[in-house]
Amino acid sequence: MLGKRYRALTFGIVATVLMIAFEATAVGTAMPVAARDLDGLGLYAFAFSGYFTTSLLAMVVSGQWCDRSGPLPPIAGGIGCFAAGLVISGTAQSMGVFVLGRAVQGLGGGLVIVALYVVAGRAYPERLRPAVMTAFSASWVVPSI
């Protein structure tokens, strides 16, 4: 998995999952302050449910998109959506716009995560896949430490 042939791919996959995981952890920590500053305690739950609902939708779309076009377009589109959502949420002046940004991030996160699983299934030999899945899991654990 970290041999010369797979090193760059492994680091790229792990870095992408870490980016999504760190953001998810940071939002959970920052949400009380953000909701209060944006006078949006009534929409607090939507900042999370908006992300997860659109992420679920994007996961379905990403699988089909990967089947048609390969994993690169959903990864590129997903990272673009995720970044756009970060900008929208980060510059929001109201809680409604913040929730919209989170929903856009969810689209990006859902597109990316499924496409990365497709990459792992196609690029790594069967004997290395358990190690790759372990790296995926560890990427979600590290930000919470």
Can you tell me about this structure?
There is one protein chain. With 145 residues, the chain is mainly α. Helix content is 81%, strand content 0%. The chain has a single domain, classed as Up-down Bundle (Growth Hormone, Chain: A). It has 5 helices and no strands.
Oligomer: single chain
Q: What coarse outline follows from CA principal-axis ratios?
A: elongated
- Largest pleated sheet: none
Question: Count of helices?
Answer: 5
SSE series: HHHHH
Assigned CATH superfamily: MFS general substrate transporter like domains
Question: Architecture in CATH?
Answer: Up-down Bundle
> CATH topology, which one?
Growth Hormone, Chain: A
Overall pLDDT score: 94
Number of domains: 1
Distance between the termini: 24 Å
Which tags fit this structure?
mainly alpha, 145 residues, Growth Hormone, Chain: A
Please provide a brief summary of the model.
With 145 residues, the chain is mainly alpha-helical.
